[in-house]
Amino acid sequence: MARDYRGKTALITGASSGIGVEFANRLAARGANLVLVARRKDRLQAVADAVKLSYKVDVQIVVADLSEIDAAASLFRTLKRKKIEVDVLVNNAGFGTMGEFVKNNTEKVAEEIRLNVATLVELSKLALPSMLAKRDGVIVNIASTAAYQPVPYMAVYAATKAFVLSFTEALWGELKGTGVSALALSPGGTKTEFFEVASEGKRKDGFSSMQTVEEVVEVAMKALDKPTPPPSVISGGSNYLMVASGRLVSRKSVISIARRMFKPQN
């Protein structure tokens, strides 16, 4: 049976592009009102206007850089002033850095960890009390297939996504029987601007065959519609097989393969 989102409020971070936009459309199509958060006001407003026009739901935007210290608390103070309670939280905001770790910009790496890990945890913590009080709610945290093995030349990114996966699955265990679902969604290569941003414009894509955002979000929506949603899902059969095959060979071999795949191109 499809989960009922009518009249619920979904908070989506990283909502100005890619997977965030697709979650906005899918949830709005099923009756959810939206709070969309991102740094780029013009793109965020364009998404909000399009969603409102298509689905006739309430859509509010909050322009914020969630990589900043105290960003999560500030966001929830804004929601409290507006008397908005979050029923669905999609922690989609995040970015990656590429290249040799020793050459990565120190402040950029710190922002990456704050956004991908600290802000995600704090937003989950702030959203949960009202969900638990209602015995109804959803938290979707965007992990990655990179969560399942170390990735040389994307060392920090893969480590943050491993945290997201572990944290979300543990949260799922704590929330059993409460009416609140926690789901980690792990896409592989996806047709978004991720790789261009991660490589600072030097690389346009990460894989020869990538999924669309529609395919990725469909996996999450189907998982959440199950009577007992799982703690995590991997998007795409080939990605699932890649993760599964990684468990059949040595850790050393897995790292060596990843090293060859992601070594910077001269």
TrEMBL record:
Organism listed in the record? freshwater metagenome
Gene3D superfamilies according to UniProt: NAD(P)-binding Rossmann-like Domain
Pfam family of this protein, just one?
A: adh_short
Q: Which keywords does the record carry?
A: Oxidoreductase
Q: Does the keyword Membrane apply?
A: no
Q: Which SUPFAM superfamilies match?
A: NAD(P)-binding Rossmann-fold domains (SSF51735)
Say yes or no: keyword Zinc present: no
InterPro entries linked: NAD(P)-bd_dom_sf (IPR036291), SDR_fam (IPR002347)
Q: Which CDD domains is this protein grouped with? A: SDR_c
What's this protein's family per the entry?
A: Belongs to the short-chain dehydrogenases/reductases (SDR) family.
Protein name (database record): Unannotated protein
What high-level taxonomic lineage is stated for the organism?
A: unclassified sequences, metagenomes, ecological metagenomes
Q: Which GO terms describe its molecular function?
A: oxidoreductase activity
